[in-house]
Design goal:
alpha/beta, Glutaredoxin, 2 domains, about 20% strand
Length: about 230
């Protein structure tokens, strides 16, 4: 049976069109699949720490200079001397939030800061929080005791690192510098330079970290009126 050339051409043209439709469908499906795969990859590979960083508290005022570590690290257990020259280290404060302040008697900004640290310890110090004022002086505890009496620092215990081991363990660059160590012994951040620790903004920083122990909504409140850390 003879088939006209025109009929054959029409049949071939129809098959080509159908084939192209199949190709377009396959390409469209492949494109959608690639897009979905790309989105899934980006979501899975997106660092979880980035989301946590955006959720962290933005401290106000002077405390906006507070540097929070994205990856907290364990506080060194380097020994230093306490009252009566007893050896201690930061692990002895486990369970409390610690404000570790490096200072020296020859540091004028430190002298201005120390009374506010004394007030901070008086206001917040207890079973949940402590100020650890660590001197890097070389003269011994007697010099620190005289300095405390002169400034009437009656609420701060005194500590000294006479062999200069703790500062390097914290990569200390200068004094005064204050580090926040949480109740699990992790270094969470630091404040460079002197600060007024009596201020509303400074107390908000302390409340923020102490609240992580208690999950007490009143502790989170920064008004300074109710449920002070003990």
């Amino acid at each position: 049976m003879n088939v006209s050339n025109a009929y054959v051409d029409r049949m071939i043209g129809t098959e080509i069109m159908n084939l192209r439709k199949v190709q377009y469908s396959l390409l469209a499906g492949l494109g959608i699949g690639l897009a979905a795969t790309t989105i899934a990859y980006l979501l899975l590979s997106y660092p979880q720490s980035a989301g946590r960083q955006n959720q962290s508290l933005e401290f106000q005022g002077e405390m906006s200079k507070f540097v929070q570590f994205q990856k907290p690290w364990p506080a060194p257990r380097t020994p230093f001397l306490g009252r009566d020259e007893n050896t201690t280290n930061l692990s002895h404060f486990r369970g409390k939030v610690v404000l570790l302040n490096f200072w020296a008697t020859w540091c004028y900004p430190c002298l201005l800061e120390m009374p506010s640290l004394n007030s901070l310890q008086a206001h917040f110090g207890g079973r949940r929080f402590a100020v650890v004022a660590l001197s890097i002086d070389q003269g011994g505890l007697a010099d620190i005791e005289r300095f405390y009496r002169k400034l009437k620092l009656d609420r701060l215990d005194y500590y000294i690192d006479p062999v200069d081991k703790v500062g390097p363990a914290f990569r200390l660059r200068g004094v005064p510098t204050s580090f926040i160590i949480d109740h699990d012994g992790m270094v969470r951040g630091y404040f460079p330079g002197p600060a007024d620790w009596n201020s509303h903004d400074a107390q908000a920083v302390i409340r923020h970290f102490v609240a992580q122990i208690t999950n007490d909504i009143d502790i989170v409140d920064v008004t300074g009126v109710t449920n002070q850390p003990e």
